[in-house]
Amino acid sequence: MDSRDTFEEAIRLREQILETKLSAAAASSTSGIARRKILPRVPMVIAGNKCDKEMRTVTPEEAKNYCSSQECCTFVEVSAKRSYKVDEVFYQLFLNANLPLEMAPNHHKRVKRCMRSSNAKCQTSEHKN
């Protein structure tokens, strides 16, 4: 949210991926018949980090407008510092990529286990809900 350069670089990266996939598809096409250009699926989530800061060089509306103009692209405002909607980024990526949601990180929770010994240490492990 606070770096226009990073936002524009994410857009350039997406465009490069699309161009590369289109070129690869055209090169592998064996027929000489001109086909209608069909854009490949490139699932992407743009994470607008630092949404907790006042100064923004990219507005949420601008990022949402860009993503709504693209197939399989979603924008999520997050704050890594505050752990705000970080899991939502991965959940949206799973949705965009049509992956099984039971594998998504937000379907798991952290469980602390303490070993019963004089040096009681807590371990964190991942378990399904």
Automatic annotation (TrEMBL):
Matching SUPFAM superfamilies: P-loop containing nucleoside triphosphate hydrolases
GO BP terms, alphabetized: signal transduction
UniProt main location, coarse: membrane
Membrane topology: Lipid-anchor
A GO CC term attached to the entry: plasma membrane
MF (Gene Ontology): G-protein beta-subunit binding; GTP binding; GTPase activity
Gene3D superfamilies: P-loop containing nucleotide triphosphate hydrolases (3.40.50.300)
Record's subcellular location: Cell membrane
Keyword annotations of the record: Cell membrane, GTP-binding, Lipoprotein, Membrane, Methylation, Nucleotide-binding
InterPro entries in alphabetical order: P-loop_NTPase (IPR027417), Small_GTPase (IPR001806), Small_GTPase_RasD (IPR052236)
One Pfam family in the UniProt entry: Ras
PANTHER family to which the protein is assigned, alphabetical: MIP08469P
Protein name: GTP-binding protein Rhes-like isoform X1
